[in-house]
Amino acid sequence: MTETDGQDNARVIAGRYRLRRHIGGGAMGVVWEATDELLDRTVAVKQLLIPPQLTPAEAEQARKRSFREARLAARLQHPHAITVFDVADDDGKPVLVMEYLPSHSLAEVLAERGSLPPAEVARIGAHAASALAAAHAAGIVHRDVKPGNILLGADGIAKITDFGISKAADDGTLTGSGRFAGTPAFLAPETARGEQPGPESDVYSLGATLYAAVEGRMPYGDTDNQMALLYAAAAGRVAPPEHAGPLTGVLDRILQVDPAARPTMAELASELGKLALLAAPTKADTAPPKKTSRRRFAFAGAVLAGVAALAVALVILLPDWAGSGAAPNPTSSAAPPPSPTTTTVTETASHSSTPSANPSSATSSPASAVQAVSDYYALMPRDTDAGWERLGPVLRAQGKAAYVRFWSGITSVTIVGGPRLVDADTVEVTLDFAFDGKHSRERHHLDMIESDGKMLINRDSGPL
């Protein structure tokens, strides 16, 4: 297999993987879209390239290490990691057979857009961090986290790829010849100094990746001089972020020179997931820089207790609301939960002058949106499965496990204001949450979307 497109696409690898078209490549390998003729499915086939400067003995060692590392990567199964299906041998060269995801890499997106909003960067980071945390728990260190190894699908999902591959084909640091394998632009300081990379190194590299995404520039400066970048990386010289907003504090902690001072990948995944929801803009966010922006940042960056802890977790896990129902009567209370429960959900009358909140002028769609919010809280915290089904894709990005953990700490939730429409597809609701004998009252704006005839809650602006 070669990098020459169109010359080799009739080849069949390992008797079953027929190459179709060249879709990418780089220092570590060439990637093809292919057909698994045994299972009749589309896959991505990547042949790992052995650095040409290696001696024959070093090349043989690299080949063996490639197979070993690839088999290790194949053990990882995670919704935000590209799955490795098979490790094949192509005339002594290791070939990975992977999940095919129609996508663009984060590197390609940044080349086109320059930078991304903090909420979008937090969401991408949360996806990647959740997969990396699972990898670390399984004893797998990625070693090459960078924008080119984060794939973004059309549905907004982010998946990380190439686990362990840079280590497999080379040591990921300086080779015996003094030549660097790959760019040092996203290396952790300890890796740039030639030390063995560990989970903390992946944390730093993900932080450097998120820095580049939100700032629109490389963490160690925009230069093509690899040795200059390596020197800056070894020293951990990163200019303070200027456009990161609520991500600033997180980046500061991730990009610590001392590996022990960085959060774990699991902690990072949780914090980024919270920030993705707290910082996400909604159509109801018409006021200038809201106090809630700073409030969200402060919440996400601190160790929370009591009411403050609830406020943060709330915005992250509250998103399980949505559904369909008959048009409500704004002057009546919401229907009680279908079965006895400790959750008390009532709806107060809304006297807003907003036309759509008036029954005489409301259409069926706005009424359904309001009813969906009432119906959602009638389920919570008792029925998290049903609640999860009432979420849109943006809020589902938090992951169901985190959602269930949040609601397990809530005793009851009561609607004390609204719900009411504030624009065509945004519902305002004021809630009282009870937990550990304490209460927290919060006002939320919920962005609603329709899917298969149901109204789903797609975004939550957080406590207003």
Automatic annotation (TrEMBL):
Comp. bias intervals (Low complexity): 341-366
Which PROSITE patterns does the record cross-reference, listed alphabetically?
PROTEIN_KINASE_ATP, PROTEIN_KINASE_DOM, PROTEIN_KINASE_ST
Descriptive protein name: non-specific serine/threonine protein kinase
Q: What is its EC number?
A: 2.7.11.1
The residues covered by the Protein kinase domain are 17-278
The lineage is: Bacteria, Bacillati, Actinomycetota, Actinomycetes, Pseudonocardiales
Keywords from the named record:
ATP-binding, Kinase, Membrane, Nucleotide-binding, Serine/threonine-protein kinase, Transferase, Transmembrane, Transmembrane helix
Q: Which organism is it from?
A: Amycolatopsis thermophila
Instruction: Report the InterPro entries cross-referenced here.
Output: Kinase-like_dom_sf, Prot_kinase_dom, Protein_kinase_ATP_BS, Ser/Thr_kinase_AS
Q: Known CDD domains for this protein?
A: STKc_PknB_like (cd14014)
| UniProt cross-references to Pfam families, sorted A to Z | Pkinase
The record ties this protein, via Gene3D superfamilies, to: Phosphorylase Kinase, domain 1, Transferase(Phosphotransferase) domain 1
**Primary enzyme class:** transferase
PANTHER family in the record:
MITOGEN-ACTIVATED PROTEIN KINASE KINASE KINASE 20-RELATED, SERINE_THREONINE-PROTEIN KINASE NEKL-3
Mention one GO molecular function: protein serine/threonine kinase activity
* Positions of transmembrane segments: 297-318
Binding site residues for ATP: K46
State the superkingdom. Answer: Bacteria
Region (Disordered) residue ranges read 326-366
